[in-house]
């Protein structure tokens, strides 16, 4: 947890970076204080969870019912932002209550504040993009082009940021390694349950509607269970344990695709590697 108070971008952005909103989003929404994955297999599971979460967020029925609807995408983004604004702090609050006997909230205050900043930054970006989009469609004349360019930049920034925060879930791994998987599960179910309760199948038949509504949350839940189970078995990371009571995590492994070469020679003898 030592990185919780580190730099936000870690010097990874330059002036030229702002010509590429995807690169800016990739850096801003995955700050330097978020710990790196310690296990390539867990990282692969996280990527699968991101894909399933994207299906839940944008709604696969949008494509089934006649193609991509940009207005519905923006409406879903605003709805998801409102859900995240309430459900993320609420879920973390429940876990703080569960952890109360193993440690204090004060021990996690720095990490929690950083996560809250990242959450508010993302929601603010979504609201700003939707607002500028509405203004740009109503404008005409010389003011239209610069505003449209800014809106387009923000749109790419938000979409790339959404992919990024779907993986790290606002940096909550800095609080507890299992929190991102839990939050992804809770959020996808919360987005799906109202449709089931109200019977709103979005014009699909009963069977197809249930499959498409439940498909994403069930998939996210299954992947999240695999993710948390692997963290528990390999590293002793238990969701119900206060972060202060968890065993120290090993350093991140070598990049995927590169074989690990152990140190050569006797490390206790000078020049032993030769």
TrEMBL record:
Transmembrane segments: 50-70, 76-98, 118-137, 143-163, 175-192, 204-226
The UniProt record lists the keyword Phosphoprotein: no
Region (Disordered): 243-274
Stretch forming the signal peptide: none
Keywords on record: Membrane, Transmembrane, Transmembrane helix
Biased composition (Pro residues): 245-265
Keyword rRNA-binding: no
Protein's UniProt name: Integral membrane protein
Organism: Streptomyces atrovirens
Species lineage: Bacteria, Bacillati, Actinomycetota, Actinomycetes, Kitasatosporales
């Amino acid at each position: 947890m030592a990185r919780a108070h580190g730099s936000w971008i870690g010097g990874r952005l330059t002036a030229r970076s702002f010509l590429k909103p995807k690169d800016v989003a990739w850096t801003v929404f995955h700050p330097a204080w978020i710990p790196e994955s310690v296990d390539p297999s867990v990282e692969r599971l996280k990527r699968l969870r991101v894909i399933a979460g994207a299906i839940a967020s944008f709604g696969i029925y949008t494509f089934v019912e006649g193609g991509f609807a940009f207005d519905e995408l923006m409406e879903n983004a605003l709805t998801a932002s409102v859900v995240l604004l309430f459900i993320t702090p609420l879920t973390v609050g429940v876990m703080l209550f569960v952890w109360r006997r193993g440690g204090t909230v004060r021990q996690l205050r720095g990490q929690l504040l950083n996560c809250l900043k990242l959450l508010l930054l993302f929601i603010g970006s979504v609201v700003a993009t939707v607002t500028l989009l509405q203004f740009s469609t109503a404008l005409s004349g010389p003011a239209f082009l610069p505003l449209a360019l800014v809106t387009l930049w923000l749109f790419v920034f938000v979409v790339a940021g959404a992919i990024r925060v779907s993986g790290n879930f606002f940096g909550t791994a800095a609080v507890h390694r299992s929190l991102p998987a839990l939050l992804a599960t809770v959020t996808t179910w919360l987005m799906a349950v109202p449709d089931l309760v109200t019977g709103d199948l979005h014009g699909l038949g009963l069977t197809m509607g249930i499959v498409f509504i439940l498909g994403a949350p069930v998939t996210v839940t299954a992947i999240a269970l695999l993710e948390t189970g692997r963290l528990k078995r390999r590293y002793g990371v238990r969701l119900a344990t206060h972060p202060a009571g968890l065993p120290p995590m090993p350093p991140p492994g070598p990049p995927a695709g590169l074989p690990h070469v152990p140190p050569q020679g006797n490390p206790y003898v000078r020049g032993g590697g030769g």
